[in-house]
Design brief:
Structural class: alpha+beta
Shape: globular
Number of strands: 8
Strand content: 35-45%
Radius of gyration: 16 Å
Low-confidence stretches: 1-9
Helix content: 25-40%
Oligomer: single chain
Length: about 160
């Protein structure tokens, strides 16, 4: 098989979050997901790609077509998403490299929020699943929390506010 065909054949497009992704992005079992992160890609005002990290405690799947995200207030990523209404989540889950293309809309601020965040509702346009027949993806971006209890507590509270 030539390289072009191999590249073409390795991608699959799905129109919605599947059951595995729904569970992974459910906002539950954060203690077990604490080392996992995703890239959140946006485009800046000067048309350059901008990459940020988003943890499992800052995103939740509402249904197979809808996510909610909580970003630190006033970040470049938040400003980019507010201006363009677009972003892409890049994640490794279950030996799959995922490109989740989303259209976003800013949600109103929650008065009295425990952890004030810029909140966004995201419509999943599609998910490109990238895999190579000759290799297995074994991990994505991982990290170690400095204050595990504090971070996971904050994540749980943030997820609860995203459910509202």
């Amino acid at each position: 098989m030539n390289d072009f065909n191999e590249l073409r054949d390795r991608d699959m497009i799905i129109e919605e979050l599947d059951a595995e992704l729904m569970e992974w992005l459910s906002g539950t079992n954060l203690e077990h997901k604490q080392h996992e992160a995703m890239q959140l890609l946006t485009v800046s005002e000067d048309q350059w790609p901008h990459q940020a990290m988003i943890s499992m405690g800052e995103v939740i799947a509402i249904n197979p077509h809808q996510l909610r995200l909580a970003l630190w207030p006033g970040t470049q990523t938040s400003m980019n998403m507010s201006k363009t209404g677009k972003a892409t989540l890049i994640a490794v889950q279950g030996h799959r490299l995922l490109h989740i293309r989303i259209e976003v809309e800013r949600l109103s601020e929650i008065k009295g929020a425990v952890h004030p965040r810029d909140r966004f509702e995201a419509q999943v346009l599609h998910v490109r699943v990238d895999h190579a027949p000759y290799a297995e993806i074994t991990s994505g971006i991982t990290f170690q929390l400095k204050d595990e209890f504090g971070a996971i507590t904050r994540w749980k509270e943030t997820i609860e506010e995203l459910r509202k």
